[in-house]
Design a protein that fits this description.
Elements lengths: L1 H38 L2 E8 L2 E7 L8 H13 L5 E8 L2 E11 L2 E7 L3 H7 L12 E12 L8 E13 L4 E5 L1 E8 L10 E2 L2 E9 L3 E10 L3 E11 L4 E16 L3 E4 L4 E12 L4 E9 L5 E11 L2 E10 L2 E11 L11 E3 L4 E7 L4 H5 L21 H12 L6
Parallel strand pairs: 2-3, 6-21
Antiparallel strand pairs: 1-2, 3-4, 4-5, 6-7, 7-8, 7-9, 8-11, 9-10, 11-12, 12-13, 13-14, 14-15, 14-16, 16-17, 17-18, 18-19, 19-20, 20-22
Helix pairs in contact: 2-5
Length: about 400
């Protein structure tokens, strides 16, 4: 009888301890989820397994690809010292991009970043994401500045245009963008298309695959400048710093002409490239080499060398195509504030970066035959925006957490 009574009491105590532990864990998870939402993250999932936090979120608030995860780790570690290990999946358009693993030892953060998100996904399987990013309309006004100094009767032509982009995530991997281009001021010839309102990126982008090894996406609609059609890209992540890719499309013209008004042609013109993209972590140099057929049928190759200075990306490039050569430089610099909170259905934002590319060739065959030309399928295209390079992100998260780079 006494043994039975002891067993009964022990069972009750253990059951109560289990309930209290489970309740405490769920309460902590809820606190963490709410805190991540307060910080500006969306599509949030969290689960605690012993002293390890598994979390997944999308970052629409912080500039760049490293500041958001670094901010989340900094706040959660300070507010929940019982958590020793953090495993965070960073998503974009609700598709996995990076896995961030971090822990603090003797006051120093150790961080590793790669694309192996499967183990985090397995832990979060079955947990519904809260505060979804889909269904929110973002309005971002992009400035467009063009300067052409190939005239003999005056110093240069210029145009200043504004291109507000209306973007919304529709479903997993899908982003709809509608962007008119509106002239503000210019000094251009009468027939120049930049004098008139034009369609910019009015298209839908669908990311089809995003895994440790593959990233496959396609975009259909209008592109910049004045193209309409379909573009697809498949990238193979050979290592953490080395990618191989195929980028191909078929397009026609689309835009406003003074004589014919607005119109478009049937997409028939094919462009296609195979390329390699390598990032060297020590020097922070990104080397890109692509060969294939450019927009107007000329065939050749282009090489880019870009140096990443924190959030700045500055580089040079060279093109050889159809027996002709060209070169120039490009840059992407921070434009908007470090943090832009997105609340509600309609959200007005500034661009995170401003980018520009300058080409040296001013006349002759290369210019007349429009050699070496390409187009952009998204309004925020630059070498700094959406730069989900694991070694780059790892380096700057570690610097932010160890107070060596400003959050």
């Amino acid at each position: 009888m006494c043994k039975f009574f002891i067993r009964y009491i022990t069972t009750i105590v253990l059951s109560l301890a289990t309930v209290l532990t489970t309740y405490g864990q769920e309460s902590t998870e809820r606190l963490i989820l709410n805190r991540l939402y307060e910080l500006g993250f969306e599509d949030i999932r969290v689960i605690l397994v012993a002293d390890t936090l598994y979390a997944s979120f999308e970052d629409p608030t912080y500039r760049g690809t490293f500041r958001g995860p670094a901010t989340a780790l900094s706040h959660l570690a300070a507010e929940h010292p019982e958590i020793n290990d953090f495993r965070i999946e960073v998503t974009d358009q609700r598709m996995p991009q990076l896995a961030v693993r971090a822990f603090k030892r003797e006051g120093i953060w150790d961080v590793s970043v790669d694309r192996q998100t499967r183990s985090i996904e397995d832990q979060l399987n079955g947990i519904k994401a809260e505060h979804p990013t889909a269904g929110h309309l973002d309005i971002t006004p992009y400035p467009m500045i063009s300067i052409i100094n190939n005239k003999t009767d005056h110093l240069f032509d210029f145009s200043l245009r504004i291109a507000p982009a209306f973007g919304i995530t529709l479903w997993r991997g899908a982003r709809l963008t509608v962007q008119p281009i509106i002239p503000i001021a210019h000094m251009l010839d009468d027939g120049d298309s930049k004098r008139y309102i034009q369609p910019g990126c009015i298209n839908i982008n669908q990311r089809i695959i995003a895994t440790k090894r593959w990233d496959v996406q396609a975009t259909a609609g209008t592109f910049i400048p004045q193209r309409i059609g379909l573009q697809a890209k498949a990238a193979f992540h050979a290592t953490r710093t080395l990618d191989f890719y195929v980028d191909a499309g078929v397009t026609g013209t689309a835009g406003y002409d003074r004589r014919q008004g607005f119109g478009f042609s049937v997409p028939k013109r094919v462009n296609a490239f195979v390329g390699v993209d390598y990032y060297e972590p020590r020097t922070k140099l990104q080397f890109q080499l692509a060969a294939g057929q450019f927009l107007w049928g000329d065939r050749g190759a282009r090489a880019d060398l870009t140096r990443h200075f924190g959030e700045y990306a500055i580089g040079i490039y060279g093109v050889i195509t159809g027996g002709e050569r060209n070169a120039g430089f490009h840059f992407a610099i921070p434009f908007g504030p470090k943090k832009q909170q997105r609340k509600g259905f309609l959200r007005v934002r500034l661009p995170e970066y401003y980018s520009m590319e300058y080409t040296m060739t001013s006349w002759f065959k290369y210019y007349i035959q429009r050699m070496g030309e390409t187009y952009n399928t998204r309004p925020d295209a630059s070498r700094a925006d959406n730069f989900y390079q694991p070694a780059y992100v790892e380096h700057y998260i570690k610097r932010c957490l160890n107070n060596d780079f400003p959050l």
